[in-house]
Amino acid sequence: MDKLRYPIGRYSFEGMTVKHREQWISDMEKLPAQLREALADLDNEQWDTPYRSGGWTVRQVTHHLADASMNSYSRFKLALTESNPTIKPFNEERWAETADSLQASPEISLAIVEGIYARWVLLLRSMQPADFEKMFYHPEKGSQFGLAFFLGFVAWHGRHHVAHITSLRERKGW
Fold first, then answer.
1. Which letter, b or e, does each residue of 20-38 get, where b requires 16 or more Cβ atoms within 10 Å of its Cβ?
2. Cys-Cys link to 148, which of 16, 70, 101, 140 (CB 3.0-4.6 A)?
């Protein structure tokens, strides 16, 4: 079950080197195309198949990636432009149950991911090393998060959810 829930393993942060930073930015740059490929040629029935028992459907995973991208990009920009801002959490589970997450074509959210990630990668490549030391406060978690940690998390998060879709496709022979 844990392998289905975390097909690439859980996120772990051990610091950020220049090599890590470049890899994570590259991962983010590649994500939209990887998501598009993972979704290629799926039909409505396949979009509405959960990637694991009790898990979200392919449709919900795709919309979640767009929702998380919008929120995460905003958090990143807030940390860059304000001094230790407090971010607004969002209830991922409830967002995944709204009508748009349950009914809209994944293509709509793929377009959002493509646009946000294009801007985000441009922003990331413009940042100085000291910018990655900037922080934001997450009130729900009661913790400070640095942009170095958060960059690694966002790169992992995208790979994590694409792997939900691709591993489902492998198991189902799609």
1. bbeebbebbbbbbebbeeb
2. 16
- Binned at pLDDT 50, 70 and 90, residue 1 comes out as low
> Domains of the chain (ranges plus CATH)?
17-172 (1.20.120.450)
d(CA 14, CA 55): 29
Give the span between the Cα atoms of 50 and 149, in whole angstroms: 29
CA distances from 81 to 75, 132, 133, 140, 156 (A): 10, 12, 13, 21, 24
CA dihedral 147, 148, 154, 157 (to 10 degrees): -130
Tell me the residue ranges of DSSP E strands in the chain. 135-138, 143-146
Whether pTM > 0.90 for this model: the answer is: yes
